[in-house]
Amino acid sequence: MFGRKNEAPTAQETVDQAAAAQAGATERVGKGAPTPRRKDQEAARRRPLVPDDRKAAKAANREALREERMKTRRALDTGEERYLPLRDKGPNRRFVRDIVDARWNLGEFIMIAALVFVLFSFIRNIDVQLIVMAAFWVLILLVIADSFMLRRQIRKRLTAKFGAPNPGDVWYGVSRSLQLRRFRLPKPQVSRGQYPS
Fold this sequence. Notes:
Keywords: Membrane, Transmembrane, Transmembrane helix. InterPro entries: DUF3043. The protein is mainly α. Among the domains are: 51-84; 89-183. It is 63% helix and 0% strand. The longest helix has 37 residues, at 126-162. The protein is elongated. The chain starts with 10 loop residues before the first helix and ends in a 20-residue tail after the last helix.
């Protein structure tokens, strides 16, 4: 190997090389075009950092962003997994959403109760204010208890379906339960009482 002089190819080797070249040419014809050189491919991918027509580039970028937002918005309405925000993606998140949306949650009504509390706070009667304040605090305690029960339910059902649950999935469900059903995003895909299996 080392120290040998290069020998001229024999006639048989020349015939073999010619046949291989012809076979390669036949394959290229079947493909439609020769394989481009690396240098040409890199040159084709190379783009200037600053486009020539900045106004058109900015408009195209704005249009692409708008289209992406529209896809995300439609996905939030329809529950289409592909374009959902990263926070809402995955079968476990869908499962948690369905659990929360299938049940009545006391947390849904906390904002309405807070609004009623603010309205009643304008009444100058101390007895009415004390009753409303006590009722509001009782509702808050009931919401906390309901959230703990929901947390246990989500954890139990996630473990049964997917194995050990991610703490983020459990918190995702509890925080969703504190929103009014009408304003939840992604929109509920199940009706009340329609628990996922």
